[in-house]
């Protein structure tokens, strides 16, 4: 490779243990890969005549990597024309949400349907809204409100009428899902789990979100604005392929994408022939072991506390144990037995400790049966909020990687510790300290659309164990800034099987960069996420132009060459 670009900064944090700091990097613009890393003199010697870009006081790092996300869905239901009403997006109370509903209904054309994402009954202390509750705010227009957990949807009488349900009665409950009903059998405006949510809400979502590709592109912009250069789709369906091809093949696309196919799809084992595998590739298969802590569906050995907040959110005290598992052990074994011989990396959503025991038992048997124990398989577990430290050691011994969601601790930590669970459980939620001490390959994620994708906030939280309110819980789980940065770079790249391409700045790696306003090692740990500013990103040695990217996507949407199936996108996520 011949370098023709040199980028200099006040300091370059390479995340390469053999060469942790540098002054400059030399890049071959034709491949987007790094040719030299070191002093400016070293790079100029390696690339005589190369064009120098001096970023002055900027600090460079490898671009952040979000190893667990749902970009398409995130864009569709959080970006305009949808409304993002999560408590940490400016709506901390149910009163704030109600004020927005009143404002929206007064200002929009009467026939325009509306979609709201992120109602959080636990954090916002909202009782479960029914159709009659929503009718007070939206007496005639269709309105759908999606629960932040991804497990419930609420809708008004106009939606029920539009769906043409005979006598206002919903159809028979689909497998694994159900409709809320009044005593006379009519709909109460509530749907539980994906199949019922889709049947109730999908006709309205299609009308309310007419440009899904543009909405997804806005989420790409959003992620890039926080320094992310690579991400994943953890619930991929084949019908999303054209959309993701459009997003990742534009000249100014800001993100690389790794796909994990939903195991419930009949074609979950098929290969994906991507125009550019460096930008879009299929990596694995995804399953769900249990549900969400915010609606009481995690497979845990511990109960919820009997507190007003738990009662108001209508959460069963439990413990749920294996009754909350989405599959029997026999079903899990059959799914893994189908896809493991194909070479796919396996990934499991799991939040409860009982759930992780079952997953690790399933993994162990499958790894032995497929002669994968001791190999570089990197099978994954996701979230693991209520899991135990000894389970992480077992995962490491099996070669299983762990993707943790600091967002669960950041926004719910104050409730988890003493309101939802006793302190010995709640203060230890998201045991990243135990995971690091076990020697695990970990990544951090924000699981969009559940929370905003802010890697620097994840890092700040990991090194302080402070929640969004500033309260500290479980200080024994604090980790070093070095380990926190790894979770957003090298650890995430390793988990995606892309550590030979991204995650660190070394010769032969892609020049995917994030520009920072200052060295995160020098920031106050308690304010790192606001003190350190993201000033831009680079992909393959080229500065990302987000405005040009959006223009390119709008042209694709207008041409209609990459149609998006709303149904497949919305069906893909529970958290």
Task: Describe the structure in your own words.
This protein is α/β, with parallel strands linked by helices. The protein has three domains: 53 residues, no CATH class; 126 residues, Diaminopimelate Epimerase, Chain A, domain 1 (Roll); 347 residues, Metal-dependent hydrolases (TIM Barrel), CATH 3.20.20.140. Helices cover 32% and strands 21% of the residues. Helix 7 runs antiparallel to helix 20 and helix 10 packs across helix 11.
Q: In whole angstroms, how far apart are the ends? A: 43 Å
CATH topology name of the largest domain, in short, is TIM Barrel
CATH superfamily of the largest domain: Metal-dependent hydrolases
Apparent shape: globular
Largest sheet: 8 strands, mixed
Summary of the model, kept short:
The protein is of the alpha/beta class and about 575 residues long. The chain is built from 21 helices and 22 strands.
């Amino acid at each position: 490779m011949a370098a023709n670009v040199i980028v200099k900064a006040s300091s370059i944090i390479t995340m390469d243990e053999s060469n942790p700091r540098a002054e400059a990097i030399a890049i071959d613009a034709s491949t987007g890969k790094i040719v030299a890393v070191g002093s400016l003199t070293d790079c100029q010697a390696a690339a005589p005549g190369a064009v120098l870009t001096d970023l002055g006081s900027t600090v460079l790092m490898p671009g952040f990597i979000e190893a667990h996300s749902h970009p398409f869905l995130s864009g569709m239901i959080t970006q305009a024309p949808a409304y993002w009403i999560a408590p940490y997006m400016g709506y901390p109370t149910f009163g704030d949400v109600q004020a927005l509903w009143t404002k929206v209904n007064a200002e929009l054309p009467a026939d325009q349907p509306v979609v709201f994402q992120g109602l959080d009954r636990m954090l916002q202390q909202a009782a479960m809204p029914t159709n009659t509750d929503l009718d007070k705010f939206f007496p005639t227009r269709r309105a759908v409100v999606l629960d932040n957990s991804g497990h419930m949807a609420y809708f008004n009488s106009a939606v029920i009428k539009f769906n043409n349900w005979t006598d206002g009665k919903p159809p028979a409950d689909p497998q694994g899902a159900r409709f809320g009903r009044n005593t006379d059998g009519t709909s109460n405006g509530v749907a539980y789990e994906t199949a019922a949510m889709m049947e109730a809400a999908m006709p309205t979502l299609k009308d309310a979100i007419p440009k899904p590709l543009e909405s997804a592109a806005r989420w790409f912009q959003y992620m890039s604005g926080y320094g992310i250069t690579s991400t994943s789709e953890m619930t991929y369906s084949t019908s999303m392929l054209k959309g993701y091809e459009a997003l990742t093949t534009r000249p100014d696309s800001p993100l690389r994408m790794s796909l994990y196919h939903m195991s419930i799809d009949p074609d979950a084992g098929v290969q994906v022939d991507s125009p550019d595998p460096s930008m879009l590739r299929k990596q694995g298969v995804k399953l769900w072991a249990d549900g969400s802590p915010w609606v009481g569906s995690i497979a845990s050995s511990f109960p919820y506390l009997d507190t007003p907040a738990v009662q108001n959110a209508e959460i069963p005290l439990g413990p749920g144990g294996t009754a909350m598992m989405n599959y029997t052990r026999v079903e899990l074994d059959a799914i893994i037995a189908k896809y493991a011989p194909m070479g796919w990396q396996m990934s499991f959503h799991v939040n409860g400790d009982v759930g992780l025991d079952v997953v690790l038992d399933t993994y162990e048997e499958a790894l032995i049966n497929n002669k994968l124990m001791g190999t570089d398989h990197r099978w994954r577990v996701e979230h693991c909020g209520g899991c135990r430290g000894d389970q992480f050691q077992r995962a490491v011994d099996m070669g299983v990687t762990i993707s943790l969601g600091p967002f669960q601790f950041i926004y719910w930590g104050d409730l988890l510790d003493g309101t939802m669970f006793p302190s010995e459980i709640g203060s230890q939620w998201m045991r990243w300290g135990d995971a690091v001490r076990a020697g695990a390959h970990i990544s951090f994620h924000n699981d969009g659309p559940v929370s905003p994708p802010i890697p620097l906030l994840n890092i700040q939280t990991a090194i302080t164990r402070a929640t969004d309110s500033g309260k500290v819980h479980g200080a024994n789980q604090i980790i070093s800034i070095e380990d926190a940065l790894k979770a957003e770079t090298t650890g995430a790249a390793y988990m995606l099987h892309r550590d030979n391409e991204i995650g660190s700045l070394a010769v032969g790696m892609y020049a995917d960069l994030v520009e920072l306003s200052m060295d995160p090692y020098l920031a106050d740990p308690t304010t790192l996420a606001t003190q350190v500013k993201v000033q831009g990103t680079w992909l393959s040695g080229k500065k990302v132009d987000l405005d040009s990217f959006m223009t390119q996507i709008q042209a694709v949407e207008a041409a209609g060459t990459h149609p998006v199936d709303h149904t497949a996108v919305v069906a893909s996520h529970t958290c």
